[in-house]
Design brief:
single chain, little secondary structure
């Protein structure tokens, strides 16, 4: 499998690889790229089944463009500064997640639970937020150009 960590020189590198191992064990199986220098190889397998439970992981600055995370439990996950452009997060539970400064342009967030999530400075340009739960969601300075908010609640 890609993403095996080698030559771990710091505790941070070890912890990043441990997080990946936990995520992979949680039902994920397709490519995602996490920022260097966490692992010797940057490409990591990561597409999650809809019952994957990745609550409270620290995935700040993760490269998750085009990731398939439909229905995944990402409650309380730190995705600050993450790249999630064109990702499928439909029906995902992102309650209380930190998505500040995240890039979510053209992401599919339809029917997602974003209650209490922090999307401060997030880029949601062209994102599909139809029927999403936005109750208590922080959208301060978020870019929402051409975002679809049809049927969303809590705005």
């Amino acid at each position: 499998r890609h993403g095996a960590c080698s030559m771990l020189t710091t505790m941070n590198q070890f912890m990043a690889c441990l997080v990946l191992a936990v995520a992979l064990a949680g039902g994920c199986s397709r490519e995602v790229e996490l920022p260097a220098p966490q692992c010797e190889e940057r490409d990591v397998l990561w597409v999650c089944s809809d019952d994957a439970d990745l609550r409270s992981l620290d995935l700040h600055a993760a490269q998750l463009s085009f990731a398939e995370l439909e229905g995944v439990n990402l409650q309380g996950v730190n995705l600050e500064g993450a790249r999630l452009d064109n990702a499928d997060l439909s029906h995902a539970n992102l309650e209380g997640a930190n998505l500040s400064n995240a890039r979510l342009d053209k992401a599919n967030l339809s029917h997602a639970n974003l209650a209490g999530a922090d999307l401060t400075w997030a880029d949601l340009t062209g994102a599909d937020l139809s029927y999403a739960n936005l109750e208590g969601t922080v959208l301060d300075d978020a870019k929402m150009r051409n975002a679809d908010l049809t049927g969303s609640t809590g705005r």
